[in-house]
What we know:
Largest sheet: 3 strands, antiparallel
Distance between the termini: 53 Å
Shape: elongated
CATH class: Mainly Alpha
Order of helices and strands: HHEHHHHEEH
CATH superfamily: Gap junction channel protein cysteine-rich domain
Strand order of the largest sheet: 1-3-2
CATH topology: de novo design (two linked rop proteins)
Number of helices: 7
Radius of gyration: 22 Å
CATH architecture: Up-down Bundle
Helix content: 55-70%
Amino acid sequence: MSWAFLRDLLSGVNKYSTGIGRIWVAVVFTFRLLVYVAAAENIWKHEHDEFECNIKQPGCENVCFDHFFPVSHVRLWALQLIMVSTPSLLVVFHVAYRENREKHHNQKFYRNPGKIDGGLLCTYLISLILKTGLEIVFLVLFYKLYNGFKIPRLVKCDIKPCPNTVDCYISKPTEKMIFLYFLVATSCLCIILNLSELSYLIFKYSIKCYLKR
């Protein structure tokens, strides 16, 4: 999968972000996207082929794998990366609208089209709320799908067509567990950064409005 589009999106958003927002971009790009591309994707690359059960009943391994891993960790992580980054497009589109409006009317409407104020402030706050909400949704989804943030070495499966309860073994469980914890930790860090930036902007512009009065 090519991640160039996400890299370009994050680079574009970085121009219009606050200091906290730039830290968020750095965390997403360095500690999430690069780790995913460089390591995590390869660890889960052959997860189905390396999932083994102690019986060769046709269809048993496939059914058990689908039961315990309804969605691949790494694919869900990729979807999370895409989803939490796309609300930033709202800010990019809003700035593009401002610039296009000035160009179309050949008139200066804004001191700086990329400055976070007025309507752009509302758009920026909405994008922060959406990013935070999506991070929380995916953390809950991970927890519910896999019965907690853990990867067992052994799972017991008694789903048909398995003739009885069979033992199935997951490959590289320790390595996968480390990356899963890393995923959860960076996701929590991004939530904290988003909430901090949201609080900062609300406080900053509340004080500004108060002083104007």
